[in-house]
Amino acid sequence: MRRLYDDFPTIIQRAGTLQVRERSVGNNAKRMHHRTSVSSSPACWRSIPCQHSELRLDYVLACGQTFRWKEFSPGYWTGVLKGRVWTLTQTDEHIWYTVYTNDQRPAQDSDESKVTTEQNDRQHSAKPCKLPKKKIKKEEINPEDKAITGDCPLICKDTDCKKDQEILEDYFQLNISLRTLYQHWESSDPNFQRVAQDFPGIRILRQDPTECLFSFICTSNNNISRITGMIERVCCSLGQRLCQLDSDVYHTFPTLQELAAEGTEAKLRDLGFGYRARFVSESARTILSKHCPDWLESLRLVPYEEAKTALCSLPGVGAKVADCVCLMALDKPEAVPVDTHVWQVAKRDYLPQLGSGNKTLTDRVYRETGDFFHNLWGPYAGWAQSYIMCRCNEPYWSKTGSTTRGWHGHRGKVALCCD
């Protein structure tokens, strides 16, 4: 990965001298842009210490754990987290982040913020919602603002900066040392030594349980590109507007109430969800009618098997989806999602007789595979499994020269999340 601005500290020292103004264009909506350069708007950026070996944004944000981050410029990732829009980038020693101001413009004020299924079917890469670009007269731009990509406060309050840092540290689970985990995995598994050297900095995200669950319900018989498109469409259709950056409009992920509302299933079918529309709608209704809005979060406090069993009671949730949600949202690092690719790796490198005679991944073979890796790798077996998936797709990355395509194969059909 190329180095990004060795002079960041000097830039930040000069940040206080910059005059950053909030400007708006039409309908009182703020004119903001994607910030794709720390040096051009240093007052908008903050950093937290994080070595490259502990986190690789290009691996983690594009691998199929989450579907709401996009690399708008090389090394700069923009997405929605905790009801706000962020852009992240990194150097060898730091994660740099900027948070955009929500424009608080009601979604219903602009029908053009909604996207149609036909438009998204033509581009399953699922870019954020597009709005027609508004031409800005040259005289509307103050020369002082030319160096600023978007509006932001000069200096954020200490409490706000601390909160933002805590959000990122929690999301990336930076309190967990990959180096320590590597040492344990390598001591117990000689095969792991080869993988760790090739794919450093892969860690499991700690996601919002609602967004994680309903995103993974969409992964059945699917691939990352199409899933990303589906998630963007449902956010644009049912979520609340956050802000507009250039021509892209960002929204929150829908709440349980929005997903369970009357007519949601029909809307989702119109958005291209197919048979998954019923699973999404019925699961949301089941949670609200039989449990409570905070039920998913409460599963973080129960044992892994209890949480998995509870999730499997929902429509459209099988063992793999439940394990993905347990691993990536419910604080169950021992959960090992198993698909045919993980099973084949287990047979090839560890247990040649595992599931012998079976042509498909049965429930019994699923359990045996997960139990084997849990016993081998220990309490963070789910984290270790993510490296095995990277090894599965090494031929694809070597062929394309890409490290940002995610854990999917030549046709985008192999991923941590996809069946």
From TrEMBL:
Q: Extract the GO molecular function terms from the UniProt entry.
A: class I DNA-(apurinic or apyrimidinic site) endonuclease activity; damaged DNA binding; oxidized purine nucleobase lesion DNA N-glycosylase activity
Compositionally skewed regions (Basic and acidic residues) per UniProt = 106-124
Which CDD domains does this UniProt record tie to the protein?
A: ENDO3c (cd00056)
- Domain named HhH-GPD is located at 218-386
Which enzyme type, at the first EC level? lyase
Physiological role: DNA repair enzyme that incises DNA at 8-oxoG residues. Excises 7,8-dihydro-8-oxoguanine and 2,6-diamino-4-hydroxy-5-N-methylformamidopyrimidine (FAPY) from damaged DNA. Has a beta-lyase activity that nicks DNA 3' to the lesion.
Name the chain's protein: N-glycosylase/DNA lyase
Organism in which the protein naturally occurs:
Xenopus tropicalis
